[in-house]
Specification:
single chain; 263 residues; mainly beta; 7-stranded antiparallel sheet; 14% helix; 39% strand
Length: 263
């Protein structure tokens, strides 16, 4: 609070005296200085409030399938390696082993633009899966039309410790549907949208995806450094649902989903 110092009665001086200069009223100087200081702090506080980003956090332990919108398969609660989570499975009786169709589960009521998505995932190829199955498993974000339009970052768990260095270099992948599937990105920009990180097939793996504008970064298993950086998300600065997915040939589990939306 500013303390106002009462002024003593003085003869009115419309202009400063040449003899006394601007020190005619010392009390006025004290008040003026206090007002300037107070104004500085007020405007600084207003400026800081204007620059703050608000965040909302939603956590989903995934110990229930309530609130999940599942497509091309089914979701059920299961315990895997000592942890409860959602198990995604494709329909039985697929006759085409080359079918690359994926199973998706989206969280109802979430509209995500920028922020951070974290989840624990575990994927490994099913028994009898094709030789080129990698345990494909990942996270969709800014998804629209039930995943027909979506940004996605995913893992190829069996590549993480392969003896072939080229396969290791394809351990994590970004793609964007419908126009930029992984094979187009690899052909047109080799090595730009995929990279290496250490992965163990079938083990619980922590994924953290940080999204801002047209950029995204993937952090794996608590690393302080991203293993994949995307500087040009193909759908642009849009928004949509958050979900998770696995290829039909993957034994896929998901747990502890957290979504922090920045506004």
């Amino acid at each position: 609070m500013i303390k106002v110092i009462p002024l003593k009665s003085k003869p009115e001086m419309r202009y400063p005296s040449r003899a006394l200069g601007w020190f005619t009223c010392p009390d006025c100087y004290v008040i003026a200085i206090l007002l300037v200081i107070a104004g500085f702090f007020v405007f600084s506080a207003v400026g800081l409030r204007g620059q703050q980003t608000t965040s909302s956090v939603a956590s989903f332990p995934l110990d229930s399938v309530a609130g999940l919108e599942v497509f091309n398969g089914k979701a059920q609660v299961a315990t895997y390696r000592g942890r409860r989570g959602v198990h995604l499975t494709a329909p039985l009786g697929r006759s085409d082993l080359e079918d690359n169709e994926s199973v998706h589960a989206f969280v109802a009521g979430v509209d995500f633009r920028d922020g951070t998505i974290e989840a624990d995932v575990a994927g490994t190829p099913l028994l009898g899966a094709p030789a080129d199955a990698r345990g494909f498993i990942g996270i969709d974000f800014r998804s629209q039309e039930h995943g027909a339009r979506t940004e996605s970052i995913y893992l190829r768990p069996t590549n993480g410790r392969a003896d072939d260095q080229l396969r290791r270099n394809h351990s994590v992948q970004y793609d964007s549907m419908p126009d930029f599937p992984w094979f187009r990105l690899r052909k047109e920009s080799p090595g730009v949208y995929e990279s290496y990180t250490d992965l163990e097939a079938g083990a619980w793996t922590h994924m953290k995806i940080v999204v801002s504008g047209t950029k995204a970064a993937l952090y794996v298993n608590g690393s302080n450094q991203p293993c994949l950086i995307v500087n040009d998300l193909k759908l642009g600065e849009t928004h949509g649902q958050v979900g998770f997915w696995a290829q039909w040939s993957t034994d896929a589990y998901f747990s502890n989903l957290t979504i922090r939306s920045d506004r």
